[in-house]
Structure formats: structure tokens, C-alpha cells
Amino acid sequence: MKYYVGIDLGGTNLKLGLVSVEGKMLARHASPTEAARGPQHVLARMAQAVRDVCVVGHVDLADVAAVGAAVPAPINWKAGTVPLAPNLPGWRNIGVRDAIQEDLGRPVVLENDANAAAYGEFRCGAARTVRSMFILTLGTGVGGGIIIDGHMLRGVTDTAAELGHMIIQHGGRPCGCGNRGCLEQYASASAVVGRMKEALAAGGASRLEGRDFSCKDVFDAAAAGDALADRLVEETAEYLGVGITSLLHTLNPEMAVLTGGMMASGESFLERVRTYVRKMAFERASTVCPIRWSTLGGDGGIIGAALAAETFDRTGQPA
Ligand SMILES: [Zn+2]
Fold first, then answer.
1. How many Å apart are CA 145 and CA 161, to the nearest integer?
2. Cα(176) to centroid(ligand 1), Å
3. Which of 200, 223, 266, 300 could pair covalently with 117 via S-S, beta carbons 3.0-4.6 A apart?
């Protein structure tokens, strides 16, 4: 039996899974990233964590056919490098693939984390029945991944599917990328909290006033009848509807999958998003494209990275 390991590298935690050829999670392992100690330290931790998850799953490292490493940054797939990771201190032109490959003596494939999440949902999650889909990861920021006719859309320099930086409001809110009006500044879980704080500072009345609150608290307050929170949630649904509508008109896909921290808002929020998409998108595009929450949730990046490694092991090609 062949095994694959998926690594989901985050700024805070390193999460791994030992995954079967069908995408089943057989064992898992998590540890702190210790990103402050620099890239070489993190690379050594990633390799060690692969050994650790093999121990947890009672599998020999030699039986791991390939390892997929998903990183929170744009990548150079061919070179196996990370040109720049803004959330990882010191990460500039880091040769992730070769470093881990040499450490472990197993083939390694590098992926972007949101692209990996898309691939996971496509292979064995919410989108397993379709051939073309995209994902939006709604967490601290907004990540994106696109699968077209069964293949990951990478672009000429692996920069495709940076969907969080799709500009939805010309001259809008400033974004960490240097532009204004990016989707990420309106529809991430952090943006919901930030916009609520602004509304309160501007004198808005809400039960969340004077409290420390999360994105889920804003959704819970809205569900409990808090008018200001409800307005914020409605606006968030509209912003997402704008972004998804543009993606439907660009890609004409068979499914849109949403994932990340905002999944806590549940099916009722999704229904609000659908309402805006139905209103704005061409009917021929919207009627064939259900909008769903992911089924793999927080495991999507791990499973997707492992299955991208499986594809490379089987075909010698990128996913
Ligand atoms: Zn941006």
C-alpha cells in the first residue's frame, strides 16, 4: 500500500496528515511552526514532522511515496521555491522542495495552501463530482484556488487564483498587498471583525459594544437580532456575492466552495450569498454552479497537498 504525507504550513502551526491514495486521513500530527527562528529551522521542523506523523501512523518513511508541502505564499512550482512569504519572517527565495527532499530522501511537491485546499475539495471533498471549480478560503485573509477541467490553474508564473486580491471596490480599503479595494479587506473573517469595530467606533449600537469579539460573535449577534451586526453580515454576503459573480463570469465553473473560519456562520449566511449571486450573475452561469461550504474544512490543505503529491507520483506532472 502506498502512502502520502500532506504538510500544511501556517505562520503559527505546522499540521500534517498521513493520507491514503483515496484521500483518507490515516494519522495526523501538529506542532508549533516556530517561524521566528527562521526558514532553515522551519524546514528542518517540517522534515521532522513528516517522520513524526509516520510514527503516529505506524508506517515506514520508506513507504511514503511522496510528500506534498502547502505553504501560505505564492510559489515557484518548477523550482520548488517560495519567492516571498510575507507572513513568515526571513522567507525570501527559499528552496523548500529540495531541502525537505534531501532531508527525507522522499520526493516532495510544493503547493500554495489555498490551491492545495481547492485540490483537496476537488479530489475528495465538496467538489468531488465536478471537473471545474474554485475555492475561497475565508480566514485571516482570503485565499483562492481554481481547478479547470481537472487541473489546477497556475498561470504563467504560478500567480493565478490570488482571489483575495481581486479588486471589488475601486479606490476602496487599503490592502496589505499595496492595492485598494481587494476582496480580502471586505470578506475575510478578520475583515468582518474590523468593519464591526469601525461601525462601533462610529457610534453604532450593538450588544458587542465594549466586548472583545470574533467573526463568529458577529454572526451570532446578527442571528440573535442585533441590527448592526445583521447589517455587517448582509454587507459581507453582498461583497462575497460581487466577487463570486465575477468569478462565475470569468470561469463558468460547476461549483464554488467556501471554507475557512467563516464556515462557523452556517448555511443561512451561504443562502444570503447565493441570493446576491442569483441577482447579479448571468443565469446560464449561476444555475449550473452551486455554492457550498467545504466538506474537508481545516483538513483541506493537508489532504490536497498529499493528493497533489499522489498526482505527481502517478503521472510525473503537477496536479
Ligand atoms: Zn490585496
1. 5
2. 6
3. 300
